[in-house]
Write a structure and sequence with these properties.
Largest sheet: 8 strands, mixed
Number of strands: 10
Number of helices: 15
Oligomer: single chain
Radius of gyration: 24 Å
Shape: globular
Length: about 425
């Protein structure tokens, strides 16, 4: 290849990378770095590495991933998707070799530690899924690539391809897209809810089968070792937070998902049933949903404790744990020197780490306010809900409304400017 041809090829790859990494940003299954700074005056490094984002491993380690679409061509016309076929955007598609080469070159230069690969649907589900699997297979078998691979599966693809994908990828995800079947049918009539749920079920069952086989046959290959995840677009349709969290809870229980991701809808077109262009994305709502998700998975809360018919929406001004505590003042104050671990964990301002430290520390004597501060609990919240060896009498008999007002006044929430209400009309 002469220099001119090589330069043209590099320019085209750069253009594809620009288009397909930008299209991939709407998928929140891993969080983006979001920074942009050019290398000028022969400085060292820059932050314009297109498509490079960060995700977290099970042990909390942050890893950088090349996050791209294989293509933004798509046969579907989902109203909420920027890659829908009727949208007038630049289209591009990587070849299998281009994705493999990009991954290996970025990895060898220590830019990334893995690949996050999604795709529009070229021709049909199997045609596209086969290419995703081939890329993972080439990386693993031909290039001995041991980095992290996260593949988006294509709803409707065959079980054989799903199974093969699980042998090469660390994590697979099937996007449920909308929180309810009726919303998916309304905004993506060409898609079938069943085509989303079936692969999720198949992957969950396969994971169990491979793990059981591994116990008896050591040579059994690893299957999807980082599990599976999914993503819901929130704020495009009128589901309440209760609807969303009940669906998430059902997915965790039925399909043993590692994560459910919540993606605040970014208006990209005028549509009669969706928020208009210019409506701010529901970022605070998205944040509160993640906090609720966290409470369900790590703090022992059930959905109906946080959201019910009387409270179908999360309070965007305060976190869901504080909101729950203020509605259940009859359970407080809690004696921090005698309460069990599970109850301490429910006190606003006390996290898992602090709860463990409290339980460990009180074996050596009763704790007072100063010791609790040293442990690191958030005293501005916790002080209204606990007693210790010295009770601050000024906090006795204070009402939930007064506590809420005091905390809001003190915090002057940094999120206030981004508040956006839930949809009330369809």
């Amino acid at each position: 290849m002469d220099n001119k041809t090589q330069k043209t090829s590099e320019t085209r790859i750069f253009e594809k990378l620009s288009i397909l990494s930008d299209a991939a940003k709407y998928d929140v299954s891993c969080s983006s770095s979001g920074s942009k700074r050019k290398n000028e005056n022969k400085g060292l490094g820059d932050t314009t590495g297109m498509g490079i984002c960060h995700s977290y491993t099970e042990d909390g380690r942050c890893v950088s991933l090349l996050k791209i679409l294989l293509t933004n061509y798509c046969i579907f016309d989902c109203a909420y998707c920027v890659s829908r076929k009727s949208n007038d955007v630049k289209r591009a598609a990587f070849t299998i070799e281009e994705v493999v080469d990009l991954t290996m070159n970025f990895y060898k230069r220590n830019y990334i530690e893995g690949l996050f690969l999604s795709s529009g649907i070229f021709k049909d589900a199997d045609f596209t899924m086969e290419r995703l699997v081939t890329i993972a297979k080439k990386l693993r078998q031909e290039h001995k690539f041991n980095g992290y691979i996260h593949l988006k599966t294509i709803p409707g693809a065959s079980q054989e391809l799903m199974n093969e994908a699980g042998l090469y990828a660390d994590r697979l995800s099937v996007n449920i897209e909308m929180p309810t079947e009726s919303s998916l049918k309304l905004l993506a009539p060409e898609k079938n809810f069943k085509d989303v749920m079936e692969p999720m079920s198949y992957l969950s069952q396969s994971l169990v089968v491979y793990r059981e086989e591994k116990k008896h046959i050591k040579s059994t290959p690893s299957f999807m070792p980082a599990g599976q995840s999914t993503q819901m677009v929130i704020g495009a349709t009128p589901e309440t937070d209760k609807d969303i969290m009940y669906m998430a809870n059902s997915l965790y229980k039925s399909y043993n998902l590692k994560r459910v991701y919540y993606s605040g809808y970014i208006p990209i077109r005028e549509h009669e049933v969706m928020p208009g262009i210019g409506t701010p994305p529901p970022l605070i709502r998205e944040h509160r949903l993640y906090q609720t998700d966290w409470l369900m998975r790590f703090y022992g809360f059930s959905v109906n404790e946080i959201l019910d018919e009387k409270h179908p929406s999360l309070d965007v001004a305060i976190d869901p744990k504080l909101s729950w505590a203020l509605r259940n003042m009859h359970l407080f104050p809690l004696d921090i020197n005698t309460a069990d671990y599970a109850k301490i964990l429910r006190v606003p301002g006390i996290g898992v780490g602090s709860a463990n430290k409290i339980v460990a520390a009180r074996r050596f004597g009763k704790l007072d306010w100063s010791q609790l501060q040293k442990i690191g609990i958030s005293m501005n919240k916790a002080r209204y809900f606990i007693t210790c060896s010295f009770r601050d009498l000024s906090m006795i008999e204070i009402s939930a409304d007064k506590i809420r007002n005091k905390l809001l006044t003190a915090s002057q929430s940094k999120f206030k400017s981004a508040y956006s209400p839930q949809l009330t009309l369809f």
